[in-house]
Amino acid sequence: MWAGSSPLRDIYRRFFSLSLNKGMKVVEVGVWEEDRWIWTLRWRRARFQWEFEQVDELLRSIASVNLSREVKDTHIWEGEILGVFSVKSTYKCLTNRARGTPNSVFKQLW
User: Fold this and answer.
1) Is 42 helix (H, G, I), strand (E, B) or coil?
2) Which residue segment(s) compose the domain that 30 sits in?
3) Are residues 42 and 9 part of one domain?
4) Do 14 and 59 share a domain, yes or no?
5) Phi, psi of 96 (to 5 degrees)
């Protein structure tokens, strides 16, 4: 999941390392109660007292995401208009950003 332009795992590294929800879809990490989504995050250990404020900040970040029961949980590739990943669109993204030799593009890729 992303917050702005950064993945939450980069913003909240400590909690990502403690999470038992890694690699799960959103639908597997919460439940609908009436028309409200309730997150059910699970941790490898109990959080320390000093971590609770940061957990609240994380929960506020993910609560700001507008979820809908009618929309399927899926990955969307922003490098392609239709949202479907392709090697061609990845290459285009890299070459547009790199504006260098083909070697510099492939260094970014790998």
Assistant:
1) coil
2) 2-63
3) yes
4) yes
5) -70, -35
Tell me if 32 is assigned to some domain: yes
Q: What is the DSSP letter of 51?
A: G
Average pLDDT, the chain: 81
pLDDT tier for residue 97 given thresholds of 50, 70 and 90: low
Helix ranges (DSSP H) in 1-110: 8-11, 13-18, 52-63, 87-98, 102-109
Asked if residue 69 belongs to a domain, the reply is: no
Total tally of structural domains belonging to the chain: 2
Residue pLDDT, tens place only, 15-55? 899 999 988 888 888 999 988 888 899 999 998 999 899 88
Residue 29 CB neighbour total at 10 angstroms: 17
In the block, which residue shows the tokens 């702005």? 4
